[in-house]
Write a structure and sequence with these properties.
This protein has about 375 residues and is an alpha/beta fold. The protein starts with a strand and ends with a helix.
Length: about 375
């Protein structure tokens, strides 16, 4: 089988979860990944133990004068030819797309060659690649309900979003020794509350500014420790900023560009503040901890706000606007940590949205396509 796509953790994590489930069922299965050269998947997929080939492909820039847009037709033709060569070499039984630049050329060619095709759409508003592929693929595995607006209804299966087994395991109660091991791994104080703040796999400027605001306004010490995923593109400047702070608060903050073992980060936390991407929602629902969601204002049709509302309206999360997060995140965190009863209610409510069997359901759909 071939799995194609990437660009962000929101595409890479479900792709790896699907691959892991296939390997669990069929240890001898040959799984090949196809990504976009220079993107995150070219590093993260090999780290997870799978081979990957890169296509010379990028998206289209909103600025029509951008050199990237002028090169796009050439890159697309080159990627289609390369995808043709790879599929002729591998002759897979099925090609799976998870969204991102690389999945377009790969699944386009696979469909023309008569190879079974499936896409896994994580969001309530599909990305452009999956919208283009919608009428060509055999099956769509949906992370959210209501995708009939973009995809043929008779090809949609609502599976939820696949999570890797070590994250899915968080659906059960976390033993004390795992919590202590997780805090030790991140060099956090085991006797103090821990807040995990993350702006997605690429980071978020407003979330990072909120952490810096916290540090500056509590220089004599925070009432909690902070585990901070700032995003790879911000890592150097955030690490340098933190080192330059000569305060007790700075010593209570642990900064990372990207955290591979999200299960440990979730286990270590008492309260979580996060963007409202589809995969974050899927993971946080399993984790079942008090959660603050800060939707990104920079996504198509504001779909992260819709993701966040799906939890906040049932009492499973607090929704903060991106424009408010810098000034209000600290007080919201402190308020939650001082209200155990509310935290318990939120934890129970957010777990109602959990789909721990999503990866299994996607692979069920893969099997059904192959034998049909």
């Amino acid at each position: 089988m071939v799995i194609s796509g990437g660009g962000t953790g929101g595409h890479i994590h479900p792709a790896l979860a699907i691959a892991d489930e296939i390997k669990r069922r069929y240890p001898q299965c040959d799984i090949q990944f196809v990504g976009a050269k220079g993107r995150m998947e070219m590093e993260k997929v090999p780290q997870a133990g799978y081979p990957i080939q890169g296509l010379w492909i990028t998206g289209i820039d909103r600025n029509w004068k951008s050199l990237r847009n002028w090169l796009f037709p050439l890159k697309l033709i080159h990627s289609l030819i390369q995808a043709q060569r790879l599929l002729r070499k591998w002759d897979p039984q099925i090609a799976i797309g998870v969204g991102g630049f690389a999945s377009g050329p790969l699944l386009q060619v696979a469909s023309r060659r008569g190879i079974r095709t499936l896409i896994q759409e994580q969001n309530s508003f599909p990305g452009i690649t999956n919208r283009i592929l919608a009428k060509k693929v055999d099956r769509i595995c949906a992370g959210f309900p209501g995708l009939e607006r973009w995809f043929p209804a008779n090809r949609i299966i609502e599976t939820g979003n696949p999570l890797r087994s070590h994250v899915a395991a968080l659906a059960s109660e976390i033993p004390l020794h795992v919590l202590l091991d997780a805090r030790h791994h991140f060099r956090l104080n085991s006797s103090r509350p821990v807040v995990f703040i993350m702006g997605g796999s690429l980071g978020a400027l407003s979330m990072n500014e909120a952490v810096q605001h916290l540090c500056k306004h509590h220089s004599n010490g925070l009432p909690f420790d902070v585990l901070w995923q700032c995003g790879g593109r911000y890592e150097n400047r955030c690490q340098e900023w933190l080192k330059a702070q000569n305060s007790i608060a700075a010593s209570q903050i642990r900064c990372f560009g990207f955290i591979d073992r999200m299960d440990w980060a979730y286990a270590a936390a008492d309260v979580i503040a996060s963007r409202a991407g589809a995969m974050s929602i899927a993971e946080l629902s399993l984790v079942g901890k008090p959660t603050i969601l800060v939707p990104s204002p920079m996504v198509a049709e504001d779909h992260q706000t819709r993701n966040a509302l799906s939890l906040s309206e049932r009492g499973g999360a607090i929704l903060l606007k991106d424009s408010q997060v810098v000034l209000t995140l600290g007080e919201t965190l402190k308020s939650l940590l001082n209200d155990p009863a509310t935290c318990d209610r939120m934890a129970q409510a957010i777990q109602q949205a959990a789909r721990p069997d999503a990866a299994s359901q996607v692979v069920d759909a893969v099997e059904a396509l192959i034998v049909s």
